[in-house]
């Protein structure tokens, strides 16, 4: 029960505005010492060490570095505004471009801290400069930055493959359509929203001196270099030159090469970019370390056993089970990180589902969709914290909390579609 | 008050020093990963030592980056109330938070991290993989080191808060990672 | 009433990791039943302690009473721990158990772990591990030159000696790395566990094993914990460790057979291969050379290597006229 109280206290403390990472760590400290004594924290060096040796997380500083260099050299702006121009007088062009670029990045990294921060650096200033609504901008970035969780390769799918004993390749294949549908619905949402409220996402100004054809051609030319960079990153993974993590270093070096080509390069610029990267990286990892202290206290005070007990009370009939299981994961996702859910909750649900003859591949995709949402749900959605960490001061936490709601709704809608019409996504609910 | 200003500025230099090392590690790490990819793909040459160096550098980036980010107020806050508060109220939040959250948390990590590293030193621990790096205690020692500097950065939050309370400094100038975006 | 004890055990594996996790669960159940509830084991898997390779240090420091892991993971800390898991071209499971329980194995192992304030016991055997998944067939030693393979530890050193480039890839990226030829080969465990990672979908050549003929896991017990237990509970603990270890070998055989039947049926492209003779010979020589180096480091290492060599010679002579003779006969009549 201590774990549950601790969540409540953390929530209240967070509202005071002390840095999130140390609020998590500090609250964990008090509850941990109270329940288990100081020695509990002898586990912390081990936990920090496992973050240090988790080389997949290297993508965080590397992608952030790429994002910072692209942003400092204005190449990111060029990419997004040019893509936006291709939409001509259509409002929402920048937001749609953000989603498309986010989807491309998603195909290379599955690390939320990397893609949300990189997208935040690249596209938030551009959208704000073009008078986009703060909520729409932040919601779009968080949603597209977490796409990497469902678009393969994805860490969630790999962990679920391990926990459920399913081949990763099958999961990757099964996740493609849900990912595509999600991206499509995000874009449709933006098109509909901007039709109804054009002021939330003004169209790019059209240069009256140039024909539409000239405009499109110059935009296409401007897109090529930064897009080439993304192609290099993705291409290096698909061709086997680099692992997904390593590809992020190619992205960083590629961004520097672009800077040289565009005569934006200076050692000062690289040093400044490194400083920004270190600050943002530290922000992300401090949260990870604070959160690991928090989950340590949660589980060592019996929180995991409590959850297990609750889960054993789920109904034994297929549709009731699926709906309640999804609801439980969604709600837990508000508070607990996805790795905990994958390892504590999924193994309890899986045998029940299997006994009902539920197709485990389908079940895994449902869980993955659901866990992706957990990065976005206030108050503890990590993607929201990360974006806040790189947003200018005029963007408030509340803007981000409100901005994400429509996108969460879309994710729940897609989840429901996969539940009700699995065949649309090339799956079946049962064997 | 004079000595608080002196202390504040001295502590800030410690955090800046950490940031400086982290920045160098950041640049080296990018080069290291890039080199490993090129060497493997173009020259079919793989060095596990170089591969391990990647995570050594990456650990330095984020561990020593944390005190640096503390001094630069780059750690994310939930600003539902915080932004609307006066400088004095913010100073009190930071002062109390640093004393009850940051410093004890850093102290415990430094304390247990120290024996963690010493143990590794005494065993002469190295990598168990072919061609891996020896002297693992060095990278393990970064944990207590970083924790020590997080504690000094926490103390730095206190000294800065005191300067703000005295009216000599304010948070507007330094606050938020906004200069990044 | 008699005093009750609860021992906390940290395992390197995740919860519900098949076979390995079944072993600790089985162990905990046996302990509790045999002691009539006086001794309980609380298992913490890697998702809880988050330090799969910190088990050694945590048991040593007394943060956990017991550990379940594999001795060769600690090679970087205490080099002599290497010898108690499985050695390339070494003993089979039954031979190695004989060495542990009736040869000098146990004594030597306690000698290695005593300065670390721990006791170590056999913790279950995977049986022979497969030689790995390769995307290209290995026809000669030349095909191994510069071949990028995920193969850790001592076996990696042997492979490196014959020209392979051992490569570190985090488990989460292994599938993608193999699929896209970032690496050429992956060594994992055996059919039952390999199947879960899906290598059969992307690599056609499944090589037979030589590098880990009998991978023995280990139980670690903190010395202080051990000493505070009354002798009847110590006996219960020892018995439960031994029974659960034996049961793991049996379960491995069962699960691997099942998984292999499955792979054969659903992935007919997968071919079983032996490394060519020149490759085996080169690896055999490399292994000899490396073992000699390892034995030269100190007296204890030397005694362990010699004990294993002597025992292998004796026990293999019998295996030759018993199991091997039988299997050969079977091969002729089938
Ligand atoms: Na992805
Ligand atoms: Na293996």
TrEMBL record, chain A:
Compartment annotation: Cell inner membrane
Which InterPro entries does the UniProt record give?
A: DctM, TRAP_DctM
Q: Which residues cross the membrane?
A: 7-31, 51-70, 82-105, 111-129, 175-196, 216-241, 247-265, 277-301, 321-349, 404-425
Keyword Transport found:
yes
MF terms from GO for this chain are: transmembrane transporter activity
Instruction: Report the residue ranges that make up the TRAP C4-dicarboxylate transport system permease DctM subunit domain in this protein.
Output: 7-424
Where does the signal peptide begin and end?
A: none
Q: What is its main location?
A: membrane
Membrane topology, as annotated, equals: Multi-pass membrane protein
Q: Subunit composition?
A: The complex comprises the extracytoplasmic solute receptor protein and the two transmembrane proteins.
| PANTHER family to which the protein is assigned, alphabetical | SIALIC ACID TRAP TRANSPORTER PERMEASE PROTEIN SIAT-RELATED (PTHR33362), SLL1103 PROTEIN (PTHR33362:SF7)
**What does the UniProt record say this protein does?**
Part of the tripartite ATP-independent periplasmic (TRAP) transport system.
Q: Know the name of this protein? A: TRAP transporter large permease protein
| Species assigned in the record | Marinobacter nitratireducens
UniProtKB/TrEMBL annotation, chain B:
Task: Name the domain of life.
Answer: Bacteria
Q: Which organism is it from?
A: Marinobacter nitratireducens
Q: What do we know about how this protein assembles, alone or with others? A: The complex comprises the extracytoplasmic solute receptor protein and the two transmembrane proteins.
Protein's job: Part of the tripartite ATP-independent periplasmic (TRAP) transport system.
- List the protein's name: TRAP transporter small permease protein
| UniProt KW Transport keyword | yes
Q: Identify the main location.
A: membrane
Tripartite ATP-independent periplasmic transporters DctQ component domain residues:
29-158
Compartments, as annotated in UniProt: Cell inner membrane
List the PANTHER family hit by this protein, alphabetically: 2,3-DIKETO-L-GULONATE TRAP TRANSPORTER SMALL PERMEASE PROTEIN YIAM, SLL1102 PROTEIN
Q: Which GO terms describe its cellular component?
A: plasma membrane
The record describes its membrane topology as: Multi-pass membrane protein
Pfam family membership, one: DctQ
* TM ranges: 12-35, 55-70, 91-117, 137-162
Q: Which GO terms describe its molecular function?
A: transmembrane transporter activity
InterPro entries, alphabetized: DctQ (IPR055348), TRAP_DctQ (IPR007387)
The UniProt keywords, alphabetically, are:
Cell inner membrane, Cell membrane, Membrane, Transmembrane, Transmembrane helix, Transport
């Amino acid at each position: 029960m201590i774990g549950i109280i601790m969540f409540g206290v953390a929530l209240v403390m967070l509202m005071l505005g002390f840095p999130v990472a140390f609020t998590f760590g500090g609250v964990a400290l008090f509850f941990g010492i109270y329940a288990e004594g100081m020695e509990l924290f002898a586990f912390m060096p081990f936990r920090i060490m496992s973050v240090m040796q988790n080389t997949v997380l290297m993508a965080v500083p590397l992608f952030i570095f790429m994002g910072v260099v692209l942003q400092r050299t204005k190449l990111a702006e060029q990419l997004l505004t040019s893509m936006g121009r291709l939409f001509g007088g259509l409002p929402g062009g920048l937001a749609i471009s953000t989603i498309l670029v986010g989807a491309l990045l998603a195909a290379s990294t599955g690390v939320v801290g990397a893609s949300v921060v990189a997208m935040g650096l690249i596209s938030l200033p551009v959208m704000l400069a073009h008078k986009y609504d703060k909520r729409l901008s932040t919601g779009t970035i968080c949603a597209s930055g977490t796409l990497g969780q469902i678009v393969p390769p994805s860490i969630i799918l790999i962990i679920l493959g391990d926990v459920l004993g399913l081949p990763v390749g099958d999961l990757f294949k099964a996740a493609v359509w849900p990912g595509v549908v999600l991206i499509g619905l995000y874009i449709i949402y933006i098109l509909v929203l901007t039709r109804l409220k054009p002021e939330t996402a003004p169209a790019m100004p059209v240069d009256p001196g140039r024909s539409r054809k000239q405009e499109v051609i110059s935009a296409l030319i401007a897109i090529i270099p930064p897009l080439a960079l993304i192609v290099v990153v993705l291409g290096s993974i698909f061709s086997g030159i680099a692992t997904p993590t390593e590809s992020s270093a190619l992205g960083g070096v590629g961004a520097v090469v672009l800077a040289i080509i565009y005569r934006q390069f200076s050692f000062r610029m690289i040093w400044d970019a490194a400083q920004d990267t270190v600050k943002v990286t530290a922000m992300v990892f401090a949260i990870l370390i604070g959160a690991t202290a928090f989950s340590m206290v949660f589980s060592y005070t019996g929180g995991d056993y409590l959850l297990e007990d609750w889960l054993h009370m789920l109904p034994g009939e297929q549709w009731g089970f699926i709906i309640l299981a999804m609801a439980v994961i969604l709600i837990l996702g508000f508070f607990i990180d996805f790795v905990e859910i994958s390892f504590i909750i999924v193994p309890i649900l899986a045998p029940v589902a299997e006994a009902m003859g539920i197709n485990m591949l389908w079940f895994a995709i449902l869980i993955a969709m659901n866990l992706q949402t957990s990065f976005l749900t206030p108050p503890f959605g990590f993607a929201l914290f990360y974006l806040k960490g790189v947003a200018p001061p005029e963007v408030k936490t509340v803007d981000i909390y409100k901005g994400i709601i429509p996108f969460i709704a879309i994710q729940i809608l897609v989840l429901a579609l996969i539940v009700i019409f699995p065949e649309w996504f090339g799956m079946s609910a049962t064997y | 008050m004079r000595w608080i200003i002196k202390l504040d500025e001295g502590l800030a230099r410690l955090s800046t020093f950490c940031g400086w090392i982290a920045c160098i590690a950041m640049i080296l790490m990018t080069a290291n990963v890039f080199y490993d990819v090129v060497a493997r793909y173009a020259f079919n040459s793989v060095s596990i030592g170089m591969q391990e160096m990647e995570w050594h550098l990456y650990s330095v980036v984020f561990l020593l980056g944390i005190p640096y980010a503390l001094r630069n107020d780059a750690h994310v806050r939930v600003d539902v109330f915080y932004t609307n508060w006066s400088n004095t109220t913010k100073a009190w939040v930071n002062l109390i938070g640093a004393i009850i959250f940051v410093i004890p948390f850093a102290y415990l990590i430094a304390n247990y991290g120290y024996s963690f590293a010493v143990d590794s030193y005494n065993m002469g621990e190295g990598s168990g993989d072919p061609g891996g790096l020896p002297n693992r205690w060095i990278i393990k020692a970064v944990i207590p080191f970083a924790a020590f500097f997080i504690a000094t950065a926490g103390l730095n939050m206190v000294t800065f808060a005191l300067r703000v309370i005295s009216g000599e400094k304010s948070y507007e100038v330094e606050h938020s990672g906004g200069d990044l975006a | 009433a008699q005093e009750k004890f609860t021992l906390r055990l940290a395992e390197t594996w995740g919860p519900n990791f098949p076979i390995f996790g079944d072993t600790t669960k089985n162990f905990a159940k046996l302990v509790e039943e045999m002691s009539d509830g006086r001794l309980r084991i609380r298992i913490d898997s890697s998702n809880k302690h988050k330090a799969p390779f910190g088990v050694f240090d945590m048991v040593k420091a007394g943060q956990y009473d017991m550990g379940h892991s594999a001795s060769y993971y600690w090679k970087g800390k205490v080099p002599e721990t290497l010898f108690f898991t499985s050695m390339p071209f070494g003993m089979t499971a039954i031979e190695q158990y004989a060495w542990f329980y009736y040869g000098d194995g146990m004594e030597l192992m306690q000698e290695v772990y005593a300065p670390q304030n721990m006791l170590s016991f056999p913790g279950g055997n995977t049986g022979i591990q497969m030689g790995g998944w390769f995307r290209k067939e290995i026809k000669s030693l030349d095909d191994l030159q510069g071949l990028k393979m995920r193969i850790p530890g001592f076996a990696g050193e042997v492979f490196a000696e014959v020209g392979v480039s051992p490569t570190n890839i985090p488990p989460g990226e292994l599938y993608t790395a193999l699929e896209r030829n970032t690496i050429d080969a992956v060594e994992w465990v055996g059919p039952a566990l390999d199947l879960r990672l899906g290598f059969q979908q992307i690599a056609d050549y499944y090589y037979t094993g030589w590098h880990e003929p009998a991978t023995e896991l280990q139980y670690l017990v903190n010395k202080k914990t051990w000493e505070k237990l009354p002798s009847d509970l110590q006996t219960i603990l020892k018995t439960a460790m031994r029974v659960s270890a034996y049961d793991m070998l049996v379960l491995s055989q069962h699960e691997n057979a099942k998984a292999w039947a499955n792979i054969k049926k659903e992935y007919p492209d997968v071919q079983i291969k032996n490394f060519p003779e020149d490759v085996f010979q080169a690896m055999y020589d490399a292994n000899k050379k490396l073992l000699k180096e390892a034995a030269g480091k100190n007296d204890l290492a030397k005694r362990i290597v010699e004990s294993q060599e002597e025992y292998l010679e004796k026990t293999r002579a019998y295996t030759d006229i018993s199991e091997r003779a039988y299997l050969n006969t079977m091969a002729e009549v089938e």
